[in-house]
Design brief:
Oxidized Rhodanese, domain 1, five-stranded parallel beta sheet, 11 helices, disordered N terminus
Amino acid sequence: MDANTSSQASPLVSATALAERLAGARPPVLLDVRWQLGGPGQRPAYESGHLPGAVFVDLDAELAGPVGDGAGGRHPLPDTEAFGAVMRRAGVCADTDVVVYDGGQGWAAARAWWLLRWTGHTRVRVLDGGLAAWTAAGGLLDQEIPAPKEGDFKPTPGGLGLLDADAAAALADAGVLLDARAGERYRGEVEPIDPVGGHIPGALSAPTTENVDADGRFLPAERLRARFAALGAADGTPVGVYCGSGVSGAHEVLALEVAGVPAALYAGSWSQWSHDPARPVATGPDPR
């Protein structure tokens, strides 16, 4: 394992360590969560080649609920029972290890990791660097579609912190609220998706892209700790994260976990906040 995956408590696993685990007596359940924002579904990419034994999970259809009128954001949390059914069909049991991966960006894998952790599954990790790291390490891909035995996982929400809009606003005053989007969206210079540009007043800009290296692997834990400490996010301080719709924000919560800093996710994120005209909006580089 590399520096980020040497500890049993790490939420990450390297490609070489995963290969060892897959060859063992109790291999983990593998979930392929490839996803492209605004792009086509990734099921065809999965069918053309995936990690051996991996089950495809669709982020938009299975890791998010119906959008409805937009008041819940672009990726509302899924119904917990529906999510549990998806995980059971994938072979997830309460006592099985689970490894999730995506195409390399890590956002979708982090969404699956966060949902499993939030619903009470503690034995889940993200493949650091995703599919690209696997193939770069010499890992083979498979086209066989697995038919796993039904799992027994039953979701129990509350395993990780979850914020609503009011709690996120309060945390911006009482603790540290990090905005994981690109800096230009935080400042309100551009807004390609949501109706209003800017950020939640009091939130600090902390793009999640700065948590990884050029290959999409997470920075070492000590570098992440230093980065978040400079933003005031350290153990003992209440920390929350939001993004555009709760996907890349989960990636930042994962980075904070690597750094040893617990953080809550505002799942509705900016897509929910900006949908409500009564919510205040700050623009520019300053938090307020």
